[in-house]
Design brief:
Layout lengths: L1 H16 L37 E3 L6 E4 L5 E3 L15
Antiparallel strand pairs: 1-2, 2-3
Amino acid sequence: MGDIDTKLRRLLVAVALLPFLGAVPRAIAAKLSKTDVKYQDQPNAGKDCDDCIQFVADATRKRVGTCKVVEGQVSAQGYCLAFTPKPKSG
């Protein structure tokens, strides 16, 4: 259980520091694994990747993209613990 607590604590710290990553060289700002953030290919409680500020849509393929903090390709309908909602417009 302690190992899970440590990983979750690291994830929460990483998510809290996300706004400051722009000042960190890209080589230092490694992405998290899908396992670490408990990524899944389906939404969770109405939350999905295309509503997250970290999601980067693929211009050529629908419903697929990448994430600024999670390594690899992700589904626009996916979800993980790093979900950060986009600000509401209006």
